[in-house]
Amino acid sequence: MQPPDHDPRSALAIRTQYRQSQSRAARLRLLVDTGQELTQLAPEAMRQRVLQRACAFLAMDHALLLEWDVDVQVRTTASHGNRDRLRSLEHLADTAMRTPQWQEQPSAILPNVLRVPLRGGDGAAFGALVLANSVSISAPDTEDIESLQLLATLLAAHLENQRLLDALVARERTMSDLVHRLFRAQEDERKRMAYDLHDGLAQTLAGLHQRLQGFAGRCPPLPEELGADLQTILALAQHCVGEGRQLISGLRPTVLDDFGLLKAVDKEADRLRDAGIKVNWSTRCEARLPSQVEIALFRIAQEGINNVLKHAQASHVVLTLELHEGQASLQVDDNGKGFAMEQRLDTCGARHLGLAAMQERASLLGGDFTCVSHAHGGTQLRATVPSDLNGTAQ
Q1: Is residue 62 situated within a structural domain?
Q2: How far apart are the C-alpha atoms of 217 and 300, rounded to whole Å?
Q3: Mean pLDDT value across residues 150-160
Q4: Which residue among 130, 158, 162, 362 sits deepest, i.e. has the most Cβ atoms within 10 Å of its Cβ?
C-alpha cells in the first residue's frame, strides 16, 4: 500500500497554527505571570517589572513609564535602557491619548516607538508606557498591542489602587491628628476652666458658706420656722460648695497631677461608692506614667464609671490598673445589665459615642480598646496603651 502524498500546504498550515498558538501562549504568560508578580511588589518595583516584561515581550530595548497628576505635571517614574537615548522619549507624553500609537522615525536614534496609555477607572489617562528600539523593527501585530494594552491596564489598576490607599492613609493620619488636637485642646480648656472655677466661683461659694455659718453662730434664737429656713440655706450653700468641688474635679482632678492615675481613678470611683455600688481593685499599680497616658486612661475610666452610673444598674464594679512589659492596662468590669454588641463600636452612632471616644483615645496613643458585653451579663472595658511614650515616666 502506497503512503499518501505529502501536502506542503498542509505542513505550512500546521506550522502557522503552531506559531499562532505559541504567540497566544506567550501573551497569556505575559499577563498571568505579571499579574501574579504585581500583587507581591511595591509600586516602584511594579513599574520596573512591567517595563522589563514589556520590552522582553516585544523584543525592544528601551522603555519609559511617564505619569502625570491633575495639574498635568509629567514625571518619569521608571526607565529601562540607555539613559541618554531615553531623554528623547520624555517629550512623548500625550495626556489626551486614548489608544496605543506606533511611530516610525527612521532618522532618530530610537527609530521605533510604541506608546500605550495608562487609564484610570474613569477612563482618563494618567500615564503612558513608552517603548522604543535602537534598531528598526516591523510594527507589532494587533494582538501583541492588545496584550500590551492589557498589561498597561493591569499596572494602571494597581497604581490607582495604591494612590487611593495612600490618599486614604493620609486622610486617616490627618483625621487622627485633628482628633488628637481636639482632645488636647479639650484637656487644656478643661484645665483652664477648672482653675478659673477654683479661683473664682468655688472660692466665692466657700466664702459664702463660711459667712452664713458665722452669721448662724452669732444670730439670736429665731422662731422655729425661720430657724428651719436658715438651716436649709446653710445645707444648700454646703451642697453648692460640694458640687463646685466635684465639678472642678471632673474637669481636671488635681489628684491626677499630684498623686497619679491610681489615686485619681480611685477618687473617681467614690461616685460609685456614693451610689451604693461596691468597688474592688483587682490589681493596683502606683507607678507614675507619662502625662498623656495618665490623662487618656483617666478619661477612659471616667467615661466607664459614667456609663455604669447611667446605664448599667450594677451592684459591683471591679477595677484593674497594671503595668506589664511596657504596656499600661486599665479595666473596668461591672455586673450590670449589659447590652448586645450587634455592631462595631465605631459604627454604632450616638448610642455608643462614649465607647467610640474611649477607643479613639487609646488608638491615638498606639494602644487598643476592647468592650465585651452581653445582655444581662455585665460589661468589661479594657484599654491597653504603651507606658513609655516619652521614654520615661512622668
Answers
A1: yes
A2: 45
A3: 86
A4: 130
Dmax (CA) for the chain in angstroms is 149
Query: What CA–CA distances, in Å, run from 63 to 85, 103, 241, 353, 381?
Result: 10, 14, 79, 54, 57
- DSSP one-letter string for 97-119: --S-EEEE-TTSSS-EEEEEEEE
Query: Are 80 and 160 in the same domain?
Result: yes
How high is the pLDDT of residue 394? 41
Question: How close are the terminal C-alpha atoms of the chain, in Å?
Answer: 104
Distance CA 179, CA 183 (A): 6
Are 246 and 269 in a shared domain?
A: no
CATH of the domain at 84: 3.30.450.40
> Is the Cβ–Cβ distance between 354 and 304 less than 8 Å?
no
In the structure grid, which three cell numbers stand for residue 211, read together?
A: 459667712
Residue 225 and residue 122 share a domain = no
| Any domain includes 187 | no
Contacts 24+ apart (CB under 8 A), 27-35: 27/57, 27/143, 27/144, 27/147, 30/57, 30/147, 30/151, 31/147, 31/150, 31/151, 31/154, 34/151, 34/154, 35/154
Residue 385 has pLDDT above 90, yes or no: yes
Q: Quick check: 391 pLDDT over 90?
A: no
Backbone torsions φ then ψ of 252, nearest 5 degrees: -160, 90
pLDDT of residue 262: 94
Domain count, the chain: 3
> For a pLDDT cut of 70, what percent of the chain falls above it?
87
143 & 206 share domain: no
pLDDT digits (tens, 9 = 90+) for 210-266: 888 888 888 888 888 888 888 888 889 888 888 887 787 777 777 888 889 999 999
| 17, 162: one domain | yes
| Element of type H or E holding 8 | helix 8-38
CA-to-CA distance for 126 and 156, rounded, in angstroms? 9
